[in-house]
Amino acid sequence: MHATLASALASSPVAVSQVRQADAFTAAREAARQARDQLPADAELGWLLTFAGGQHDPAALLAGFRAELGDLPVVGGCGTGVITAAAASGTGYECGVLLFPASLTPTAILSATGLDQDEVAVGRRLGAELCALDLPAASTVLLFYDSVKSAPPPVLHLGSRLLDGLYEGLADAHPQVIGAGMLTDFDLSSGYVFDGREVRRHAAVAVVLPPGLVGRVAIMHGCLPASPFLEITRIEGARVLELDGRPALSVVEERLGVSREDLLARHPLPALTLGEKHGDPFAPFNDGQYVNRLVIAVDPADDALVLFEADFQVGSKIQLMAYEPWRMIDSAREQTLSLLASLEQRPPLFGLYIDCAGRSMAFSGMDEDETAPVRQEVGALCPLLGFYSGVEIAPFMGRARPLDWTGVLALFTLTT
User: Pfam families recorded for this chain (predicted)?
Assistant: First the structure.
């Protein structure tokens, strides 16, 4: 282990570990043991945040944590891979953990099931419970939810509807919300969350971090416009049927110069998102102004584009967006350094990196690892845990929003 990293970990009250092991019980128990060994022998433990590869059985993971740490609250869920300072790995057999002391126990861990029935209702229930806590203005809430409603074919829980409900329930409360939609693999076959006590499907869990923790966030981008503005003239939920009055699939073929056969052969489409620019549409390009929606499939029967989310509507002005590998890496480096500078010499206690599964080397086919600047810069200063997600949730344009094809880095410091 690098000496600087070893020194940082030794001085931190938060411990991180990552284990890759085919047996889920063994992976969880070993990850928990390694984290436990980094803390003082007499340290009182508080809770565990974990992200695990989708090949692991979640019940066996939970049993492994319990065998090593006892009846400790376990929060988190699955991803297509796990990220720490040591590695970004996506075999599906990873188990990464952050182990927290009792002094950093969450103010509350709330959960609600029923996403398969009504995402808005689940969000509203969680928001109302959060509102009832009368949280301080600077509070941070980690929000994780199961992304997959059913499969195959994949039908997704919509993060935009979950957040709409959450803000209805929050009323006048305004905590900072950071989180993700969880999925097990690139085929979008399943998902789950740990809600503090159990493994849950079709559920969301909200973790209210203690008031002594302050989180700051940076959003990594990497897409460039590949078309002029196009108007959505027909849409049904997450299915974009027409752009500028023409079949959406035909417009994509024409604009990108990609054949229908090629588009149909790729599910999801690794190089295509639809971007909606916020603010002045005529301002010079700034990827920080865009909310992008990943096209996960095409429907040849209706010439439709199927998105990961369903928050676009008739009249939305969008652009076809293509990712640029070099831009992804540059953005990750620039945003990480900027976020570290914003801490104003206050040392980070730990970092959390939520990265779109599509940005991983396994999915994108890139030769360079987009997480490298984050792992190198943050991992040298404090424990870092991340994972590859279905949807990233971060503050954008005045409220938390579900994002696609982004990396969300959160750094946490103590107020005292």
Answer: FIST, FIST_C
DSSP characters for 295-363? EEEEETTTTEEEES-----TT-EEEEEEE-HHHHHHHHHHHHHHHHHHTTTPPPSEEEEEEEGGGSHHH
Distance (Å, whole) CA 348 – CA 400: 22
- Among the three residues 281, 304, 323, which one is the final residue of a domain in this structure? 323
SS3 of residue 141 by DSSP: strand
Same domain, 229 and 298: yes
Q: Are residues 210 and 246 in the same domain?
A: no
Which span out of 153-162, 198-207, 320-329, 353-362 was modeled with the highest average pLDDT?
A: 198-207
In 3-state terms, what secondary structure has residue 379? helix
CA 186, CA 390: separation in Å to the nearest integer?
9
**pLDDT, position 34:** 98
Same-domain status, 309 and 193: no
| pTM (two decimals) | 0.92
Report the Cα 89 to chain-centroid distance in Å.
16
- E-state strands within 60-210: 74-79, 82-84, 88-89, 94-101, 108-113, 140-146, 148-150, 155-156, 176-182, 193-196, 199-200, 203-208
Cα–Cα distance, 74 to 95 (Å, whole number): 13
pLDDT at 364: 61
| Angle in degrees, CA 231, 236, 240, rounded to 5 | 45
319 CB-contact burial (10 Å; exposed 0-12 / middle 13-18 / buried 19+): buried
- Domain C-terminal end among 323, 341, 358: 323
Q: State whether 317 and 333 are in the same domain.
A: no
- Tally of CA atoms within 13 A in the half-sphere of 148 that contains its CB: 25
Does one domain contain both 309 and 346? no
Which residues are bridge partners to 204 per DSSP?
112, 145
Regarding whether 354 and 295 lie in a shared domain, the answer is no
Using the predicted structure, report yes or no on whether residue 354 has a pLDDT greater than 90: yes
Same domain (yes/no): 65, 198:
yes
Q: Does residue 315 sit in the same domain as residue 331?
A: no
Q: What is the pLDDT of residues 52-100, one digit of tens each?
A: 999 999 999 999 999 999 999 999 999 999 999 999 999 999 999 999 9
Number of domains in the chain: 2
End-to-end CA distance of the chain: 29
